[in-house]
Specification:
By secondary structure, this protein is an alpha/beta fold. 49% of the residues lie in helices and 15% in strands. The strands form 2 sheets. The chain has a 5-stranded parallel β-sheet. Strands 6-5-7 form a 3-stranded antiparallel β-sheet. Helix 4 packs parallel to helix 6 and helix 7 packs across helix 8. It starts with a strand and ends in an 8-residue tail after the last helix. The relative contact order is 0.18. The protein binds BIS(adenosine)-5'-pentaphosphate.
Length: 223
């Protein structure tokens, strides 16, 4: 299974990617998670990315393209992946197509999640993430000890710096300007589908699975 999950901040890409990863034993390639891990470990990539991320801007294309190329260099990832948060610019999408051609990878689909902007702001205001395992939660479903402690690993839950309302507003502007144009880029590929991300998590997952099973083709390796 080789899928791109696409959409503005907070639409549920990470949530759905984690469900799909379990379903298909795929590699979840989340550029946001990779960058946050690099920031946490103060690697050269993290040091470079931090100021862009804190401000809600995109990290430069050359850095991101190099990172994805590195990730796709493992056999396991090449065979089955869920790309979450990449590509985000036309330059990244073109570079990804070149990589796929070179590596003989055929993409199964690009799924775009759509959610109202007010709901995005609400969800990100309520999102909590685990500092240790990266699991995503919503205050909508937490109570008591769970408000601060991860159910999965006991790690500390935190509110992302870039989820503060002003930064979310800027991230949405960045999305509209730099990322949304990719919809037309992928619509032409014939493997683009828009999914209603306003529905509840399990229902969105079911809509994605329905599409996958209707459209699954073999083999995945391009001629
Ligand atoms: P990244 O981490 O990728 O952020 P994002 O794309 O803005 O997406 P989010 O993680 O905010 O949201 P999501 O869609 O995954 O939603 P989630 O499932 O968590 O990137 C962060 C930064 O890194 C960028 O700003 C940029 O600086 C840099 N970066 C990353 N990739 C880059 C690239 N390719 N190029 C350049 N820079 C890059 O859900 C959100 C909340 O809603 C959760 O609380 C969840 O529980 C809840 N929720 C999910 N689904 C539902 C539902 N159906 N109903 C109700 N609640 C729901």
């Amino acid at each position: 299974m080789r899928i791109i999950l696409f959409g503005p901040p907070g639409v549920g890409k990470g949530t759905q990617a984690k469900l799909l990863t379990e379903e298909f034993d795929s590699v979840h390639i989340s550029t946001g998670d990779l960058l946050r891990e690099a920031v946490k470990n103060r690697t050269p990539l993290g040091v470079k990315a931090k100021s862009y991320m804190d401000a809600g801007n995109l990290v430069p294309d050359d850095v991101m393209i190099g990172l994805i190329e590195e990730m796709l260099n493992s056999d396991r990832a090449r065979n089955s992946f869920i790309l979450d948060g990449f590509p985000r610019t036309v330059a990244q999408a073109k570079a990804l197509d070149d990589m796929f051609d070179r590596m003989g990878i055929k993409l199964d689909g690009v799924m775009s999640l759509r959610v109202d902007h007010e709901e995005v702001v609400r969800r990100l205001n309520n999102r909590r993430m685990c500092r240790t395992c990266g699991r995503i939660y919503s205050l909508d479903h937490l109570k008591g000890k769970e408000l601060t402690q991860c159910r999965n690993c006991g790690g500390e839950l935190y509110h992302r710096e870039d989820d503060m309302p002003d930064t979310v507003k800027h991230r949405l502007e960045v999305y509209l300007k730099q990322t949304k144009p990719l919809k037309d880029f992928y619509r032409q590929s014939g493997r683009f589908i828009q999914i209603d991300g306003m529905q509840e998590i399990g229902y969105v997952h079911k809509m994605i699975l329905d599409w996958i099973y209707r459209n699954r083709t073999q083999p995945h390796i391009a001629d």
